[in-house]
Amino acid sequence: MIEPINEEQEKREILNKYRALLRACNDKTNLKDRKKIRSAFNFAMEAHKEMRRSSGEPYIYHPIAVAHITAKEIGLGTTSIICALLHDVVEDTEYTLKDIEKLFGKKVTKIIDGLTKIQDVFDKNVSLQAENFRKMLLTLSDDVRVILIKLADRLHNMRTLDSLSKNKQLKIASETLYLYAPLAHRLGLYPVKTELEDLGLKYTKAEIYKAIAEKLQETKEERKKYISKFSKPIKTKLKENNFTFSIQGRPKSIFSIRNKMVNKGIDFNNVFDKFAVRIIVNSSIENEKSDCWRVYSIVTDFYKPNPDRLRDWISTPKDNGYESLHTTVMGEEGKWVEVQIRSKRMDDIAEKGYAAHWKYKQEGSKESSLDNWISKIRELLENPESNAVDFIDDFKLNLYAGEIYIFTPAGELKTLPKGATALDFAFEIHTDIGLKCMGVKVNGKLVSLSQPLNSGDQVEVITSSKQRPSKDWLRFVITSRAKSKIKSALKDDKKKIAIVGKEIAERKFKHLKVKLNNKIESELIKHFNTRDSLELYFRFGTGAISNTEIKGFVKLKNRGWIQSIRNKIYSPQTIKNINKTEQIIVFNDDDEVLEYKLANCCNPIPGDIIFGFITVVDGVKVHRSDCPNAIQLRSNYSYRILAGKWVNKEDIDFIATINIKGIDTVGLMNKVTQIISNQMNVNIKSININTNDGVFEGIITLKVHNTSFLQEMTKKLEKVEAIKSITRTYKHQ
């Protein structure tokens, strides 16, 4: 039974939320500012008065919450708070940008425009979300506040995701992990980034999230006591040296713990540094560097540091402006503790990212590396030929990347992502230098263009006016800038050939009495599996499409084959006259039966949670929900995702691969095969065994009926004393 709406109670709650907002921005506003905020609040109230969220709450709760995050957690001022209150008005109501401009001015209107989603995208093969994201990023160098407010919007949506359907939760959480969390990281909003990651994990891998959260809760008091004991001698010494400071325990995020468990193949108890403290010193700007190193000296007087875990981001800050001194020391009971040392100014920038960075910049107008990065992104985005999804994929790769520091021959310092090559460096200097690069010297020695660089390298670029970029270059450059410029240059060359290719195609089809119009062009693109018309005519121009293939296409077209393929891929119909016992997977809520293939990247078997993905060529591909590619597919192509489930699966055998690790003992392999083959009657498809220094590792590929069967077999194997871990892997032998 739905409870009746208590309007009076809702009005009181709205007022309470608005007052909390005013308190959050009190130190940033005067009376005039608060009047403007009140005006925006009243306007938003009126615009959204009939609207409710999926949870049933008044819609106005959302813009107030976004404004509160914008003010308190990101630290933005009056204009941003107004924009946060109004951010959904143009998108969701009948009010227009002109109405906003009339009441709140051009600056607010421009930010709202950046926040308003694209209503229509003509190219159906381009992800709407990718286009929205690209449009939002276009405003970066004009007004970074658009991005910051968008992150606040996304954070509140993630906090209130429970009221949505499972499919919508997965879509939004995947987008968040794929794009928004890395962007928050790049802009230095570490608390926002951490929460987005944890919430993303909560909705994409609920069981893993819950297990780690429970473990952290169980060990909370233990960690608190340990950190207090660890900090005590440091506090005493800092006071003796007249430092004004604060020391706080820093909880490790669930997402980062899970990543360490996966990447290092360890369990929760073996995660390296669950214990962490942060020491913040009050220092003047001229003394903060030396003060941080003095604090480091005091810490290491009591605890031995791990020499491989020292990170000095004070001498060389990160591209996003992050400054801090990190070390990991051995505490009592043999426990590693991560210690972060920074000044109050550094901490402000670390917590509130670009907003704080901008505040401090007002005091000294020095251009930061973050400003330079934003300018580069703007340059990439302004390329009219860049595909939205391609851009987002490349952009995303560079968001989380660690940094290396490279010197020019003149001694100028350049920052590049970890893994960057000599050619990436050439493009970092200038686009023309990159395009004309024919050789590179690293530390005086001639190396290949694909040579990965290391921090501290001094690099000299050798150019030639005759040099042209090669398609091979795309294999080893990693920066978005280099990829974009190479693709653009290659496309220019490709266009020239494609123009000639179209003339050739028109002549050949005219000879076969077929008029080459838009419809035929679309069918040719699908038939020859080309990305677009440019690729198609390029292949005609290079002679890659023969006369025989053209004649074959015309014959198939005349039999109506092209249309049937298109219908199967883009407008899947229920397949009739199928024997019910042969049905394996059905799709969507109406249990639609479609042709499908199992994806090789994750090899789903019955019992796995799955989804279907409509491909351009291969029809529906079925993936596991925890497939390595799931987040990217849901984020970029959500409109091509089908809900899927298994039916009538008992009599079907599927391929599964398990990884067994343990202590190498005599007869261990015999015990394993006895359980698999004799007790469980399972057919072993392939087996690969390695032993090293008393450690045993086996990769075994099996034919099984379903996940329940696999789990039963795993439990029997785990009882073998020498076996220490059994995990299912994606790769088959």
In short:
With 733 residues, the chain is of the alpha+beta class. It has 5 domains: 7-209, Orthogonal Bundle (Hypothetical protein af1432); 214-361, Beta Polymerase, domain 2, CATH 3.30.460.10; 488-570, no CATH class; 580-646, no CATH class; 654-729, ACT domain (Alpha-Beta Plaits). A hairpin with a 2-residue loop joins strand 18 (683-692) and strand 19.
Structural class: alpha+beta
Low-pLDDT segments, ≥5 res: 118-126, 568-583
Form type: globular
CATH top-level class of the largest domain: Mainly Alpha
User: What number of domains?
Assistant: 5
Helix content: 40-55%
Described by strand count, sense and barrel closure, the largest sheet is:
6 strands, mixed
Which fold name fills CATH's third level, the topology of the largest domain? Answer: Hypothetical protein af1432
CATH architecture of the largest domain: Orthogonal Bundle
What is the average of the pLDDT values? 81
Provide the fold topology.
Elements: H1 7-24, H2 31-47, H3 61-73, H4 78-86, H5 89-92, H6 97-104, H7 106-115, H8 128-138, H9 145-159, H10 166-186, H11 190-204, H12 206-218, H13 220-240, E1 245-249, H14 254-264, E2 275-281, H15 288-302, E3 304-305, E4 311-312, E5 325-330, E6 336-343, H16 344-361, H17 369-381, H18 388-399, E7 403-407, E8 413-417, H19 422-429, H20 431-435, E9 437-442, E10 445-447, E11 459-463, H21 480-511, H22 518-527, H23 533-541, H24 547-558, H25 561-570, E12 585-587, E13 596-598, E14 610-614, E15 620-624, H26 630-636, E16 641-646, E17 654-663, H27 668-679, E18 683-692, E19 695-704, H28 707-718, E20 723-729
Parallel strand pairs: 2-6, 13-15
Antiparallel strand pairs: 1-2, 3-5, 4-5, 5-6, 7-8, 9-10, 9-11, 12-16, 14-15, 14-16, 17-19, 17-20, 18-19
